[in-house]
Design brief:
Shape: globular
CATH class of the domain at 13-169: Mainly Alpha
Largest sheet: 2 strands, antiparallel
Structural class: mainly alpha
CATH topology of the domain at 13-169: Four Helix Bundle (Hemerythrin (Met), subunit A)
Order of helices and strands: HHHHHHHEEHH
């Protein structure tokens, strides 16, 4: 579907701020959502959910919180909410303030999930209907994308702010054998003159820990903690 006359581009400001502050591996997802909102609205809903899942996994990995490879968006989002301190320290004990903020975030997730349900029931990908149904309009896709943008921008922003004021969680290379083996399977051993061979995963861990964290959060078929997560559990 091409861009229709009168439509404008869509930019995810919150998600792009997260990319700029360390969430680089979701940049292509962000670009795909921005394009889909205008050119293929039905695709934007699933992409928006995937973006939030990726952000939650990255945050949980940074904080050393284990998650299962089959954990869905509601469970990942709940675990992330429980792991991140949303409020400044003086307000942390104010339960009413935290509950209000959690209701706001839950409302954004509900808006996104509601849009996905509408898309499934009435969009171009709907099932079980004996007659054609109208495809979802770009305005609905924009709502889903805006909800994802607000969630990712806020969650990653408070996550980074909290980490910047406290020591980053320490990773131990030996705690992630599945991820290390996966990295090694993609790259040749490293030989330096007569020294080596060295494992590519260990070299990456020692030289670029942030890049290692990104791979750890997203490598195929594994959790963030070398197999200690809730494997196979479904929310």
């Amino acid at each position: 579907m091409g861009t229709q006359a009168g439509e404008t581009t869509f930019v995810m400001h919150g998600a792009r701020a997260a990319v700029a502050s360390g969430l680089q591996h979701v940049e292509e997802q962000v670009k795909a959502i921005e394009l889909a909102v205008v050119e293929n609205p039905g695709l934007a809903f699933d992409l928006a959910k995937t973006l939030i899942e990726s952000a939650c996994k990255a945050i949980l990995t940074d904080r050393g919180v284990a998650f299962g490879k089959n954990d869905d968006l509601p469970k990942l989002f709940k675990m992330t909410r429980q792991s991140v301190r949303f409020l400044p320290a003086p307000l942390e004990q104010e339960s009413a303030a935290r509950e209000s903020l959690e209701r706001t975030l839950n409302g954004l997730i509900t808006a996104l999930q509601g849009g996905c349900e509408l898309r499934n029931a009435f969009g171009f990908a709907s099932h079980g209907s004996g007659s054609p149904r109208p495809a979802m309009e770009a305005v609905h896709a924009r709502l889903a994308a805006q909800a994802a943008d607000a969630i990712v921008g806020f969650l990653y922003g408070v996550h980074r702010q909290e980490l910047s004021s406290s020591p980053a969680p320490q990773l131990d290379y030996d705690d992630y054998p599945d991820c290390n083996e996966w990295i090694d399977s993609q790259c040749a051993p490293i030989q330096i003159l007569s020294l080596g061979p060295y494992r590519p995963s260990e070299v990456l861990f020692c030289l670029d820990l942030d890049a290692y964290r990104d791979l750890l959060a997203n490598f195929p078929g594994a959790e963030s903690s070398g197999g200690t997560g809730e494997e196979g559990e479904r929310a």
